[in-house]
Design goal:
Blueprint lengths: L2 E7 L3 E7 L6 E4 L4 H11 L5 E3 L5 H4 L2 H8 L2 E5 L10 E3 L4 E4 L2 E7 L8 E5 L4 E5 L2 E2 L2 E2 L7 H12 L6 E4 L4 H11 L4 H16 L5 E3 H7 L8 H6 L7 H14 L1
Parallel strand pairs: 3-4, 4-5, 5-6, 10-13
Antiparallel strand pairs: 1-2, 2-3, 7-8, 8-9, 9-10, 11-12, 13-14
Bound molecules: zinc ion (ZN).
């Protein structure tokens, strides 16, 4: 099993380190800020050997060159990140990436960005979902890409309930408030909203979740439920249409 450490970088970006304890191979997931990621690795006593880039946006790639220079780590990520991060290996859908004894399947999950990748390891019960899935939310969708984003989310939702997800940001409290407004009769959402408020008060960073928890509380995962269709006045519509309406509603929330 992989050890994981998820922490705040910049204002709300997730820094994440994944360690294979047997081989000590350690991957940084994106690099919003090289200094903060290095400090976190030092604190854990882990040596970064790899950098996994989920997508090309600057807040995920801007520290990659400096982190690679400091560690000699091998960098892999999507082709459209090559302009902003020094990639040693370009990944595409269907590829496999190893970290020590663990391996991740690479899934192309567009919608938030064209080249966005999800790193999925069912055996290690871990998926790196970048800005596709957030705790109780999902990433912003590019114009005209609602269908692509819905397909990407549906792909992630095929993972088993006990798979942990590392998301790219902590927007948890805002997402929980939106979820509570859309899914009013869901006690799991109400409980998680209370937890999100407590986390905010305590200054606890929260970008780690599981498929099962998202299935229970994430309004975008739950777009196929009648209650969510009703919340956006689309009873009887397809889950994909409800998803798009929910995402638009979140933009205005
Ligand atoms: Zn992004």
């Amino acid at each position: 099993m992989l050890d994981i450490h998820v922490f705040r970088t910049l204002s709300d970006n997730a820094g994440a380190l994944i360690l294979d304890p047997a081989t000590k191979a350690c991957a940084a997931v994106d690099a919003p800020d090289a200094g903060q990621v290095l400090a976190a690795a030092r604190e854990k006593g882990w040596t970064i050997s790899d950098i996994f880039v989920t997508h090309a946006h600057a807040d995920h790639t801007q520290g990659v060159a400096e982190l690679k220079a400091a560690t000699g780590a091998k960098v892999c990520g999507p082709a459209d990140a090559a302009g902003s991060a020094p990639l040693d290996r370009i990944l595409k859908d269907g590829d496999t990436v190893s970290l020590g004894g663990s391996s991740f399947e690479i899934w192309h999950t567009p919608g938030h960005s064209d080249g966005h990748l999800t790193f999925a390891s069912t055996a290690s019960k871990l998926a790196l979902v970048g800005d596709v899935v957030f705790v109780m939310g999902c990433g912003r969708v590019q114009p005209g890409q609602m269908g692509a984003m819905w397909s990407s989310l549906c792909g992630v939702m095929t993972l088993p309930d006990d798979v942990r997800l590392i998301a790219g940001h902590d927007y948890t409290l805002s997402n929980a408030r939106f979820a509570a407004a859309m899914d009013k009769a869901n006690p799991a959402v109400a409980a998680r909203l209370a937890e999100a408020e407590a986390a905010k008060t305590a200054g606890r960073f929260w970008a780690l979740t599981t498929i099962g928890e998202e299935k229970a509380t994430n309004p975008f995962f739950r777009a196929g439920e009648p209650a969510l269709a009703e919340a956006v006045n689309l009873s009887g519509a397809s889950a994909g249409e409800v998803f798009a309406a929910l995402r638009e509603a979140k933009n205005r929330f």
